[in-house]
Input
Amino acid sequence: MFVRDAWYTAAWGDEVSENPLGRRICNEPIVFFRDQRGKVAALEDRCCHRGLPLHLGTVVEQGLQCGYHGLVYDRTGRCVYIPAQDQIPERAKVRSYSVQERDQLVWVWIGDPSKADETKPPDFAYHNDTANWPHKHAVLHINANYVLLLDNLMDATHVGYVHSKTIGGDPLAFVRAKEKLTRNPNGLTLTSWLLDSTPPPTYVKAVGFEGKIDRWLERQYIAPGSVLLWTGAVNAGMGAYENNRREGGFSLRMFNGLTPETETTSFYFWSAANGYQQNEPQATEQLFAEVESTFAEDKSVIEAQQKRLTEFGDAGRVDITTDRTQLAMRRIIERMLAGSAAGVTLDVA
Amino acid sequence: MFVRDAWYTAAWGDEVSENPLGRRICNEPIVFFRDQRGKVAALEDRCCHRGLPLHLGTVVEQGLQCGYHGLVYDRTGRCVYIPAQDQIPERAKVRSYSVQERDQLVWVWIGDPSKADETKPPDFAYHNDTANWPHKHAVLHINANYVLLLDNLMDATHVGYVHSKTIGGDPLAFVRAKEKLTRNPNGLTLTSWLLDSTPPPTYVKAVGFEGKIDRWLERQYIAPGSVLLWTGAVNAGMGAYENNRREGGFSLRMFNGLTPETETTSFYFWSAANGYQQNEPQATEQLFAEVESTFAEDKSVIEAQQKRLTEFGDAGRVDITTDRTQLAMRRIIERMLAGSAAGVTLDVA
Amino acid sequence: MFVRDAWYTAAWGDEVSENPLGRRICNEPIVFFRDQRGKVAALEDRCCHRGLPLHLGTVVEQGLQCGYHGLVYDRTGRCVYIPAQDQIPERAKVRSYSVQERDQLVWVWIGDPSKADETKPPDFAYHNDTANWPHKHAVLHINANYVLLLDNLMDATHVGYVHSKTIGGDPLAFVRAKEKLTRNPNGLTLTSWLLDSTPPPTYVKAVGFEGKIDRWLERQYIAPGSVLLWTGAVNAGMGAYENNRREGGFSLRMFNGLTPETETTSFYFWSAANGYQQNEPQATEQLFAEVESTFAEDKSVIEAQQKRLTEFGDAGRVDITTDRTQLAMRRIIERMLAGSAAGVTLDVA
Output
């Protein structure tokens, strides 16, 4: 069961070209393509004639042409050409999906198209600000439900255990972090401060911290699948926390788009933007590589977790104190599933 | 659900030796072997003792010996030897299948054996006429129902789209072809003429056409799974169509045997016989290689189609004008499934 | 359906270290680890918090720490530490399993722990007697139910067919062997003598027999999954059978522990102990290699058999005279399944 009336990250803009891209989202096979005017379109990935996936077809003047018998669909999904036939039956059509391309991302609306215009996908203008936030991006395929990935992103307490060799540092520093959780119209914001803490290996590698640091993680969750993250650190004792002064240390921003493929598989779109050595492309590459290896650690944990969940469900599970944010996030998703709009008053403060 | 009272291509004759061959047909595991007198036999591929597949056994004087505990079965499936036991229980037997070997092919009858003698497998004597029709053959495993392969073989309109780089040429030439569909006692014959058309790359490669051609495809469908094909071309304007003069150009014959393995997988037995440069073995090899790469294109299309069919069935599908032959063929199969004999009067003329 | 109130071989002792081992037994995921005092423990392989398999965790002072959020379990499965939380909920626990380590093997009791102490795993002290019985061991994963493996081990008549190239020799020698089947409190003992028989290639390779041999196989089946085997041969005509004199030839002992992973997969723990050239490590290595290739032959037969069993069950199966021992063994397992203790009077003599 998926939240359907919602924008999901569907692709990076540079993944969608005149070479059609087939991708399953919320268990619906969809073909994404860029038409001859450069505009992204999304159709049901199944020809209404003999069922061939349309991603095996070709972009033509009028839209997308099936690779089996040459039927052409326009961007609304209407069949506009059938070889050897003047009359095109009313029934000859496929579903079309609302799409938007912005900030280098393609978003898709899975549910009722009439509701798509009432809302818009999250902003992430940093993707366009290459002077201040040079970035690199990727997409991972994960064998787990997307909510398990959200749990992971919104929870700092796993960092000390899962990422002890990369960004972990002292496990208890995360557990003892000063946390502030606020409700937003469409999600949550969670800010964590690890004051006077030991810098993790990644941070030292990046900017050469020599002593303790004040480190922050700021995550904005926008339901159902986006997490905008800003994290970084400065030398401890400079008043970073008290005066909100975060310049002169290590800082990065990440876009995280979690999109269900099926109930047990997901796409994870992510970017890492370098906010500390903007003029050194090598630093951006290194940052990307470090985050990438961190995600490989999360992926193996989450996929192992999904296997147990598939087999046993929630039988015998207990929650712990630090699950507070996850539980708040899951309540938002449950309400959306129950048909209520996102952004209702939340009891999570 | 399969048509069971029918002859299916089971193997090429040269695949069946004293080294037993296990092959699943109509979802029944069958072992084919050549007995010590050189005669092909077919038994249920499962020993009645402990269930070992008999294709792991050995051909012996009396028949086929199981590789686990040495039980021997004769070609009727009766157990004729059990080590350390004089008495052989009445129940010790496996199913046997009617088989015929002819024209280098092995055919099997899956259903009621008492009906096997009333009918016979299709003739294809060209396989034996190596002077006029030197050929090469193969078998492909396809992850799709065999009827999707029949659809493909009986439909020329896909050629321009699926095979644009090999035998395709101008897509609309196929759509506008002169077609004649006739009913046979056991199937259909479809003749298509592409007059004054551009020769496809394969044809030019083979015999060096310089101008337009008159090209024909003649396909005889014999239910449930055989398609005998004769195709070729001569220089345009020589009266090939009007006077049925087809000498002096490019010509090939193909046997196509489509056999269900399961509901969603099939075997495709095919041969390509060179009718234009009979004394040049290299031409036969080249012909085979060209057809083989054409089939690789069909295979990827048909397997993608099967995936959607498995997921969505026929929901929302529409037929188009050029499906006429396919629909006639499918009606024959449906009647056979419903228990009526093939060859009843068809309303397809 | 598995016999649950029983000891199963779970691992070789050298497989269990502070690096936790995840292994599914009787379809239950279990984590085995050696605690900091060197004692083996076994817990449910699923954290009660978020379901992560505990085999991804770390052995710590108090027990096993989950690799996701740091919960620690002691060897009884009680959660004894949750970061950032003083109070540990009563419900925070996982199942623990009774384990025993002896004779280089780790045994696990799957069912009701209160019954574990009433019985003990089979003895196999030869594993510790490296002077007289130097050995090498391994574990195989088999895609078949464990009882099919037991059938195979307790049946000598397959040897002539499945192992004709290794230990087979004359098939009928096994069929005609003098057999004695005796009942034990917890299983069966089967002794077979092949008098005046041709030595198989393996035996000749090992000790260079030049003439006929008197060969024995002694197998003690201990329900549900252990087979202790002693086999060997001496020159024929020395009175080996009549006077039970078995010195001076070829002799080996094997431990065989068959453990269900799922209904259709198993673990096969085995060792081969050299009782004929104890001071030549190379002879032990060669023995191991020979047995290993013999098992590869059994594995392919048994896995093929399982496929047919999965598809067709027992439909149409017949038993033969030489199945007597197998049937007796299966009756013991069926009685255990029905809840009766092993070792009741058996009607197999």
